[in-house]
Amino acid sequence: MFLFKFIVLIWFLCNSTKSEDLGYNLNIGNAIDVFANYGDLSQVTQVISAEYEGEESTEEIVPFSEKNIRVFTNFTSQESNGEVNSITNMDMVLCETFDSLLNEYFKNFKIEGTDKPWKAFMGDWIPDEIMRTFGIDYESKPDCCFVMVKLTKTHKSEQLGNLRGVALKDYVVRAIENLNVSDTAEVRRFMRSYGTHYIDSYKTGNFIYQVFKYKRRGFDLLKSVINLTNRRPDALQNLRFYFSSYFLKQVGDIKIASGNKTTETWARNNLRDIQYLYSRPSLLRLHYSSTLVNQLHKQMDNGALIGLNLKTLRPLFKDKSKADKFAEVVENDLQLWEINA
Fold first, then answer.
1. Where is the signal peptide (predicted)?
2. Domain that includes residue 325, residue range
3. Disulfide engineering: 258 pairs with which of 128, 149, 289, 303, CB 3.0-4.6 Å?
4. Which of 2-16, 113-127, 261-275 has the lowest mean pLDDT?
């Protein structure tokens, strides 16, 4: 009887310790199971404005709410704060296809083992939903190109230190010792319990963005002018000319990564460009007005995840061959999920 109680006590202590290491916030070095929400990670990470008209949320906007578990013990990390009183210069990205636009939007998101991180965040969404998050109308066969304009405000970034010699939590050590990496089903059970990747770095803040849908001839002209002058797109002297209705198919709605409806409404009302008889929201207004940039800065919260780097849990394994086999299962599954998303 005493032995039974002792075993129960040990089991309880082990599992309670593991529970204390579970979290739902951004915890550098913690592990997550990418497959738990693959294709819809944007529901547990605030990376894009997915709220539609009339869907005002009263909940606090948080950049990350995915379940994660502490697997390392004595690691170090380096944290830095962004430019508190400023927004970075305007970025202008030229994209031949909508797929390349998605790749550009998620260029600061890395998931080891996959070539298209955006599919982990939005792969399960239908095309109509995805295009609405970018403020543009859906087309089944879009014969057009895209230019994305965005301004970024960085709040905080954190980078994990060197993991050489870092110790593991006891329950992770036991799980690895009992893991048969040659059994794919067993590896997948391990992944569900302890994750597939750890958070190597992240960046929080916000960015405001707008997509312009271009006619092919207008897009080619803009690209050729940029190539000839060897300048940044936003440095063109007559920038508004290349964003006129003559070249465009659609001016997309202004969106903000945190999904803050108040800021989006402010931008639509205050960032208006008047051309001929038309008035429309345009981030290009910020290019000509430092006053508007300062006003926008005050409007932008820190509720978005604007960068994330996830690495496979190779460092958990002291045995290189065991680490390679584990990573192979994770990366093969990622490739399959990526194709099917």
1. 1-19
2. 16-340
3. 303
4. 2-16
Q: Look at the alpha carbons of 106, 154, 46, 272 in this order and tell me if their dihedral is positive or negative.
A: negative
Q: Phi and psi for 272 in degrees, rounded to 5?
A: -110, 135
Residue 8 falls within a domain, yes or no? no
Beta-bridge partners for 32: 197
Is 202 part of any domain?
yes
Q: Residues in the chain, how many?
A: 341
CA atoms within 13 A of residue 217's CA, in its CB half-sphere: 4
- Split at pLDDT 50, 70, 90, the class of 67 is very high
Give the integer Cα–Cα distance in Å for 254 and 211.
Answer: 8
Q: Lowest-pLDDT range, 15-24, 148-157, 175-184, 310-319? A: 15-24
β-sheet bridge partners, residue 148 = 93, 211
Between the alpha carbon of residue 175 and those of residues 171, 191, 196, 332, the distances in Å are: 6, 11, 14, 22
Whether 4 maps to a domain, the answer reads no
Query: CA angle at residue 113 from 108 to 153, to 5 degrees?
Result: 10
CA distance 162 to 183: 30
Can you give the pTM of this predicted structure? 0.89
Residue 243 lies in a domain: yes
What confidence tens digit (pLDDT) does each residue in 259-296 have?
A: 999 999 999 999 998 766 678 899 989 888 889 999 99
- What are 19's two structure tokens? 């529970």
Max distance between CA atoms of the chain, in angstroms, equals 88
Bridge partners of 159, per DSSP, are 78, 201
Q: How far is Cα 146 from Cα 130, in angstroms, rounded to an integer?
A: 14
Distance CA 14, CA 16 (A): 6
Do 311 and 198 contact (CB within 8 A), yes or no? yes
